[in-house]
Design goal:
The chain is mostly helical. The chain has one domain. It is built from four helices and no strands.
């Protein structure tokens, strides 16, 4: 039974690796939000845009989005290996799915932002805040899954 040996040898460590990876994802999202809030504050105050900061936010966004979605799929695969189905932790799974959908939504919204007075800026902001809140809740749920 090679599956049993794999399961007993690696899955407990993979659970902690998943938690560590997604803790880093939360930190990355908070950093990305910090950049976005800084850009927003500069724009709202009527100051000249900081193009270096804007470029960093734009270049870092897709990387953060991919890591967030990868964390969801990694957890889904891990639970499938561990339990044989993906709905062992339904609230944790549902929250991760919602976060992934919001990440995709925010990426699509960000592609529509053009110009200083774009009507897509506020939706991008509110979806981003929702992602951060749900990530923190998801982290809390994840700690409960680990212990």
């Amino acid at each position: 039974m090679p599956y049993t040996n794999f399961h007993n040898s690696f899955v407990p460590y993979l659970r902690y690796a998943h938690g560590l990876f997604n803790s880093c994802v939360i930190i990355l999202f908070i950093f990305q939000a910090f950049l976005g809030l800084k850009i927003r504050k500069i724009r709202k105050n009527g100051n000249a845009p900081d193009f270096k900061l804007i470029r960093k936010h734009r270049n870092f966004g897709p990387v953060v989005a991919i890591t967030g979605i990868a964390g969801f799929f990694g957890g889904m695969v891990l639970v499938y290996f561990d339990e044989g189905h993906i709905l062992e932790y339904p609230l944790h799974f549902s929250t991760g799915l919602i976060i992934s959908c919001l990440i995709i939504t925010n990426v699509l919204i960000s592609k529509k932002i053009r110009g200083i007075d774009s009507p897509w800026r506020n939706p991008h902001f509110f979806v981003g805040v929702s992602i951060i809140c749900l990530l923190l809740f998801q982290g809390f749920l994840g700690i409960g899954v680990l212990f």
